[in-house]
């Protein structure tokens, strides 16, 4: 599946900003990610989908957390490697799961599968369903029925 031009440009801009922040040349980003310079260039400038292995290599080379390329393509920000989630982000994620429609949960599972793999996506879905069934607040207690 092709990536639209605006998403590709957004990715290229984010990659370039991160590369400059790290003080790296494109060839160094490719080398640190474990891919060829040509593969990196195709990811930045091409029109076809970026394979998961290439996305992970870009993230390694730019010291982004796994899933950052997908996040940027979706219009969100990349997450620098090692950055802990803030309490508010965790609460926001929990609320998104609790308020999601079944189709939205399936879409979320697809993103998890793309980022982390099928096994983790299955685990995400099992936990999301359990959370919704229990009305979990995240601390193991159920929401009060009012």
From TrEMBL:
InterPro entries: Lambda_DNA-bd_dom_sf. This is Helix-turn-helix domain-containing protein. It comes from the Bacteria.
């Amino acid at each position: 599946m092709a990536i639209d031009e605006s998403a590709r440009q957004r990715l290229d801009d984010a990659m370039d900003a991160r590369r400059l922040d790290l003080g790296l040349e494109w060839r160094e980003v490719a080398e640190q990610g474990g891919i060829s310079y040509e593969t990196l260039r195709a990811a930045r400038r091409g029109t076809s989908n970026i394979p998961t292995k290439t996305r992970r290599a870009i993230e390694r080379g730019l010291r982004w957390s796994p899933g950052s390329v997908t996040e940027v393509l979706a219009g969100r920000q990349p997450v620098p490697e090692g950055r802990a989630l803030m309490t508010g982000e965790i609460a926001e994620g929990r609320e998104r799961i609790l308020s999601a429609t079944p189709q939205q949960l399936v879409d979320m599972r697809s993103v998890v599968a793309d980022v982390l793999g099928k096994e983790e996506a299955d685990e995400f879905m099992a936990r999301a369903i359990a959370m919704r069934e229990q009305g979990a607040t995240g601390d193991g207690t159920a929401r009060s029925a009012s």
